[in-house]
Amino acid sequence: MENSQIVFFIFSALILVTAGLVAFRPRPVESAMWLILNFFLTAGLYVLLGSHFVAVIQVLVYAGAIMVLFVFVILLLNLDPRELGTDSSVSWGSLILFVAFLSFILLSLHVTTPELLEKMPPIKAGSTFGTVEALSKTLLTDYIFGFEMAGVILLLAIMGVGLLAYRKINNPRIVNGSERP
Amino acid sequence: MNVSIAHLLFLSFGVFCIGGAGFLMRRNALSLLICLELMLSAVNIAFVSFSRLHQNESGNLLYFLVITVAACESAVGLALILNFFRLKKNIRLDEATTLKG
């Protein structure tokens, strides 16, 4: 086994473990912290894949901006366990059935399409894959419409959040966000 | 990188399944949104892997569109959660039954 393979397996094992901790830790703040670690590990995986700019954006935007928003709301709400509610549980039988069914499907895929298991070709010498230059060139030529749509979606989200957060302060009928009859 | 696309897709699929299980089992709104982020992150892993397989930037661009949607979704979702908390003084989703017919 080569070095890059070993690094890949370590990263993917850590990503899966932190994903499990994100999904099943009882308190939201723990989930958020593990999710930040998960995003950092995913950024490491992107570096291994050669998409360096995507890795930087993962750390800056995902682990930075979006998770700060989550942690901010968690701290703002300051919930105690009583206000969180109890999580539902899943029966072991259905879990085992799901995993068995899934592994059957994956095994049959393995048998029928062995070319999926071939190693990926190495990045050609002189290729600009993963650089900011190549990415922005593709973004502003082939995908300009999608780029504009992303801007429109962000604008709509800002307007929606403003609408949700808006409340009249001097209206005596509105108490705690709900209207009195 | 000496691994096959299948390894990367298994990783992406595993993270997606964990996120989906968390999404279905958690009963508070904040953990639900966090699990949603996890699922979107799993999809991103698949996009970037295919981008690397074909050495084509389109997958990386889809990654950007996905994080745009993730940012919008978390902003709107967290605003909804804050309003819900103002109304009910908790974030238990079992109590969000006002629209029940």
Low-confidence stretches of chain A: none
Contiguous uncertain segments of 5+ residues of chain B: none
Largest interface by Cβ-Cβ < 8 Å? A-B, 85 and 72 residues
Q: What multimeric state do the chains show?
A: heterodimer
Order of helices and strands of chain B: HHH
Distance between the termini of chain B: 54 Å
- The succession of helices and strands of chain A, N to C, reads HHHHHHHEE
Say how many strands of chain B there are. Answer: 0
Largest sheet of chain A: 2 strands, antiparallel
Range of strand content of chain B: under 5%
In short:
The complex is a heterodimer of chains A (181) and B (101). Chain A is mainly alpha-helical and 181 residues long.
Task: Explain how this protein is built.
The complex is a heterodimer of chains A (181) and B (101). With 181 residues, chain A is mainly alpha-helical. In chain A, 70% of the residues lie in helices and 2% in strands. Chain A has a domain at 1-81: Four Helix Bundle (Hemerythrin (Met), subunit A). Chain A is built from 7 helices and 2 strands; from the N terminus they run αααααααββ. The model of chain A has no long low-confidence stretch (mean pLDDT 86). Chain B has 101 residues and is an all-alpha fold. Chain B has one domain (5-94): Helix Hairpins (Orthogonal Bundle), CATH 1.10.287. Helix content of chain B is 77%, strand content 0%. Chain B has helices at residues 5-25, 29-54, 58-88. The longest helix of chain B is centred in the last third of the chain and has 31 residues, at 58-88. The interface between A and B is large, with 85 and 72 residues.
